[in-house]
């Protein structure tokens, strides 16, 4: 595959920031630069990559905390999330204070994403699916060529995203997973915002939130 990636857990929440790159062009993107921006930039430099954009699945502090500073200092476009997360972006300073994170710089996405959009990275194309439920504006990035999907806090190995935050919706999250993740294929490896990678097929069969029909 020509899309490569490495995952770098950042922040006290061990959020999986993924560094993606096109092997042909060595152009790179960071998915969910939640913090520790110097470490992320060091990784980009160590691999000899050219950082082209900042992708955002959703605007929780552990996923978006370093996006504003990186965008400003590196002159990078911010791509995503969906406009439904505007209120979370507006609340980043408050989120920083609440969780004891370094103050997050505000940012304005260069490009809001919609379901069905695509993002070009070098010669690679990422397909965007809107997956509301954890947050209203949550998006995921799917590489069909690499059989990988970067899903933020939609799905975890053995679990799903929390829906008890403002704008969260449990049924909507289940629908997002069933209608927008499962059709990518059982063999697709998903990279969640926290914890280990897994395959969609394994979760479809065994995830307790999704695999069993519910009674009563
Ligand atoms: Zn989240
Ligand atoms: Zn998270």
UniProtKB/TrEMBL annotation:
<keyword id="KW-0862">Zinc</keyword>
<dbReference type="InterPro" id="IPR001279">
    <property type="entry name" value="Metallo-B-lactamas"/>
</dbReference>
<dbReference type="InterPro" id="IPR036866">
    <property type="entry name" value="RibonucZ/Hydroxyglut_hydro"/>
</dbReference>
<dbReference type="Pfam" id="PF00753">
    <property type="entry name" value="Lactamase_B"/>
</dbReference>
<keyword id="KW-0378">Hydrolase</keyword>
<feature type="domain" description="Metallo-beta-lactamase">
    <location>
        <begin position="14"/>
        <end position="194"/>
    </location>
</feature>
<dbReference type="InterPro" id="IPR051453">
    <property type="entry name" value="MBL_Glyoxalase_II"/>
</dbReference>
<keyword id="KW-0479">Metal-binding</keyword>
<protein>
    <submittedName>
        <fullName>MBL fold metallo-hydrolase</fullName>
    </submittedName>
</protein>
<feature type="region of interest" description="Disordered">
    <location>
        <begin position="194"/>
        <end position="216"/>
    </location>
</feature>
